[in-house]
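*** Backbone structure tokens ***
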Amino acid sequence: MKVKVQSFDAKAAAADVELSDEVFGLDPRADILHRVVTWQLEKRRATARGTRERADVARTGKKFGRQKGGGTARHGDRRAPVFIGGGKAHGARVRDFNPSLNKKIRALGLKMALSSHAKAGSLIIMDSLEVKDGKTKALTADLARLGFGKALVIDGDMVENSFALAAGNLSQINVLPAAGANVYDILKHDTLVLTRAAVEKLEARFHG
């Protein structure tokens, strides 16, 4: 699959890049994408710290007073939540939010997320992300010329520093290194922007 390489430099010569069909040419499947996104979001959830309930506290279970005539309520033992040191009523319990998902399915989901943008025409390949003086004003003008919407920008090992500085004030632009590419972030953005370095890293990730 050939895609035109774009540049912030309007005078730069146009070029094409060949994308691997094994990574960018798959037919997306909603069930696979759903499984990966669900797994990814549940991995983010933190469970509550478990509290000790009535059955968990180390106190005597002996009835501490007679049933009638003592002038007190008819309690069975000191573990009741109304007593200091008693078990908590309806306390927080540890829950497991870490479901497992096969690595092959996770890799397939990422390929399909990349392919979905390629098929929809919302995939943009950039030659470089360098922004003059790292200024937001200059980047805004470049983005308007290229027609970016809400975009996720993925670079190589590290995000170009001048671009990261310029994009820091733009709420519609999010940036990631290639190692951080994930299905959820890719799918929730209207446009996916990859640099040449990002393409090489992603393809090597699946062929390595």
